[in-house]
Amino acid sequence: MHPLTNRAVRLVALGLCLGAGTASGQYALRDKLVGVTGTNVAMDASGRSIKVDRVRAIHTTDNSLEGGTAYLIQKDPFLAYQLGRNLNFREFRVRDGVLGKGAASQLGGPMPDGTTAKLTTNNTVGCLACHNAPDGNPGGGINLAKDSGFGRQAPHYYGAGLVEMIGIQTRTKMLQQLDTNLDGWVSAAEAAAAGPSLTVVPAPGEAALDFGDPQLDGGLTGKPSFNNIVVVWYVDGNGVHVPGATGVDGVTTFGYDFELVVWGWGQGAGRGALNPTNRAFLWDPFNAHSGLDAYDPTSNSDPDGDGLAAPSLSGAIQFPATHKSPDRGVHLHANGYSLDDPDGDEYLNEISEGDLDLGEWFMLNVPAPAFRGTPAEYDDGVALLDGMDCTSCHTADWKLEAQGGDFAGDRRLFDFPVTWNDAAQEFQGKLVPLWTQVGDVFVPNRGEYTVSGVFCDFRHHDLGPEMHEIGYDGVVNRPFRTAPLWGVGSGFPWGHDGRSLTLDDVIRRHGGEAAASRALYLGASVGDRQALLRFLGNLQLYDIESLPADISGDDIISNAFVVQGKDTGYERFNAEWLFKIPVRIQGDVLNANGQLIKSSAGTNIRNAYGTDLAYLKDNDGDGWPDVWDPNDTQVGYKNGKK
Ligand code: HEC
Ligand code: HEC
Asked: What crossing angle do the helices spanning 77-89 and 353-365 adopt, rounded to 10°?
């Protein structure tokens, strides 16, 4: 518990952040100190803006190459996290190649009919344009003109690493049951030998979930009938992906492989959803929404042709059979970047493989939503969900297995549990290291972990006409992914289309497969219904960087957390405090009104952010690091020299 005085200190600090402006416009580059003179100066006393200029990051696997992504992730992992955070929230500029050649606000295609355009593309300058509630976090936000005139609501992606790990592990558990000869794919005979349903137990004590029928519909030919979240590709007799194949025919295709497309509301029967990994959910929206094309061998390389790529630096396998980043690098510069320029705007290699390493590292580690209440209140809420059969789809917990055999373990660097302090009436966080330090390398422990309260079975369900979607092309989309309910109390509005303006309304729209559950909700006492809605309302997001948190591991949230000799205010999870060389804040300074304020702008940015390390250095400031730049003394945003 914190005495009131502590809280007062906090409110002053928070007031400062708010005073500095809550408009999302603050996530451009603002690297100047408070008090610098001039006009239109890019200063930010709140310290939340991006403090380093755009430089393409360079993918490395040798962690001795200073400033390369293996170095950053393994030797300065909180700097890697912060650089990844910056990529998720940066407002890209024309000089970074954003939006393409005179191509702001285009139509991108196609819908299932093959002719109708599917969404408005090239209409924003970064992820934060849509994922910005709360601002500066991977929150939810706007409704986008996509698939239907009713649009699609942007969900939050707090806890993104946990969701990705659940998806990859569930695929592994399914494959283990089917692939009896252990050659990595499912042959027609293996499919025939399997039963009519393939189940996975999410966590001890949870009911087994049925992911559908792995058998081919024609016996030794045809397609399996999985739940719609499973996307399948077909392979030849050696397990090599046969592009364009739509089933097993016994002539060119002899089996299949598959992935769980855990991300996205759903694209209709037979089309799964959007992306199976966080890395793909970086290059895909960068391309679709901002015209920034990624060249990414990590996503696309598949030397043995099986449709799978080796794990990324963060440890996630990728699925090139179905998801290839847009810039294919057909023509490469001798330094290794792509000369292809698929969007024809003359800005080359707009998003680099290294950028994706860092953005993915942030998404892997970004904290999960929290519950605003006591553990007993949480248990009461889950009991209500159980009683109304909501948890037959909104599965509470998933267990990640420790590393070993086919499992990768919990690949995160740290956990950040956030709990409700009832006495102080506030959320509080705690940094829990999940790493072992070996020399100067941070090695993730890859232990087991139970993801608590995600409330999702990662399956698609048909909830009946009130939840169906009439596409632009007239095709009706019926199945949608069970919405993960963590953070749902901070979401507004609700449903894939954002058409429900209350939680009660979105529950009342549950028909079809959820009709019996809805009947239990409607038949419950007013008191139980209100208690359920209160519980859902308490599944919340929070501002990650200003939340009071113990990051030093002493179980105390200090009121005057000293970093680099400066009192930064109350202790909180600002990754900058955990860099190899922590950021030193400007501190006490007089503002334009002559008031004494604490400026969180940084005074040692070049040092702390490693801007002078060999693989990050960009002498002429054109976004092309010197080790790539064909001319590092001539500013050339497009290709290093032009
Ligand atoms: C123009 C608005 C917009 C922009 C910009 C945008 N998103 Fe999204 N995002 C959405 C919408 C809408 C959805 C849901 C789409 C669907 O499922 O049909 C979504 C879904 C997601 C999801 C999946 C969430 C879930 O629960 O399924 C992730 C992860 C995500 N976005 C990450 C990003 C990242 C990273 C960027 C930047 C590289 C980005 N988005 C840029 C609108 C946007
Ligand atoms: C048969 C599976 C199923 C059952 C049972 C079920 N749901 Fe859902 N739920 C879903 C699906 C699928 C969605 C996504 C619907 C959409 O937007 O297309 C969803 C969406 C929601 C949402 C909206 C979340 C958001 O982010 O917009 C809430 C809230 C919700 N469910 C609560 C409940 C409650 C409470 C119950 C029990 C009374 C329940 N659900 C029972 C499958 C189910």
From this structure: 100
Q: What is 442-479 written as a DSSP string?
A: EEE----EEE-S----S-EEE--GGG-EE-TTSPEE-E
Looking at the CA of 262, name the nearest ligand. 1
**Could you tell me if the CB of 514 is within 6 A of ligand 2?**
yes
Whats the size of the chain, residue-wise? 642
pTM: 0.96
Q: Which atom of ligand 2 is nearest to the CA of 536?
A: 29
Per residue in 411-447, pLDDT tens?
Answer: 999 999 999 999 999 999 999 999 999 999 999 999 9
What would the 3-class secondary structure string for 194-218 be?
CCCCCEECCCCCCCCEECEECCECC
Tens of pLDDT along 457-485?
A: 999 999 999 999 999 999 999 999 999 99
Q: Tell me how far apart the alpha carbons of residues 138 and 596 are, in angstroms, rounded to a whole number.
A: 32
Strand duo 566-567 + 562-563: pairing: antiparallel
CA distance 250 to 150: 43
Distance CA 226, CA 152 (A): 25
The SS3 of residue 20 is: coil
For 231, phi and psi rounded to 5 degrees?
-110, 130
**Residue range 369-414, pLDDT digits in tens:** 999 999 999 999 999 999 999 999 999 999 999 999 999 999 999 9
Distance 69 CA to ligand 1 centre (A): 25
